[in-house]
């Protein structure tokens, strides 16, 4: 039964009242049963709750993605700084070694040759 036929049937119910055919018909007209409004409202409320939960989770995922991107960028920056400092340490180590080899204070002395 399509929607228009159903609507026509409901409309004709109010115009063609026959108590002889259906004694409960008048009570159904005067006190109609709810048309599943509560069930529809419950479904809508559930859908709304699910939608809100999905939205919250999506926002949380996006926030975590941004945090991960920030942390990844920070790790890359720290790696670069670490390589730079290692290189500087090698240069300084070589410089100190050259200074020590040029200085007489750090030269090894042959005590036997000086005594003679």
Automatic annotation (TrEMBL):
Transmembrane region(s): none
Listed GO CC annotations: cytosol; Golgi membrane; trans-Golgi network
Record localization: Cytoplasm, Cytosol; Golgi apparatus membrane; Golgi apparatus, trans-Golgi network
The name this protein goes by in its record: Short coiled-coil protein
Spans annotated as Disordered: 1-20
InterPro entries on file: SCOC
Ranges in coiled-coil conformation: 54-88
Biological role: Positive regulator of amino acid starvation-induced autophagy.
Chain's gene name: SCOC
Membrane topology: Peripheral membrane protein
Domain of life: Eukaryota
Keyword set, alphabetical order: Coiled coil, Cytoplasm, Golgi apparatus, Membrane
Subunit structure: Homodimer. Interacts with ARL1, ARL2 and ARL3. Directly interacts with FEZ1 and UVRAG. The interaction with UVRAG is reduced by amino acid starvation, but the complex is stabilized in the presence of FEZ1. Interacts with NRBF2.
Similarity remark: Belongs to the SCOC family.
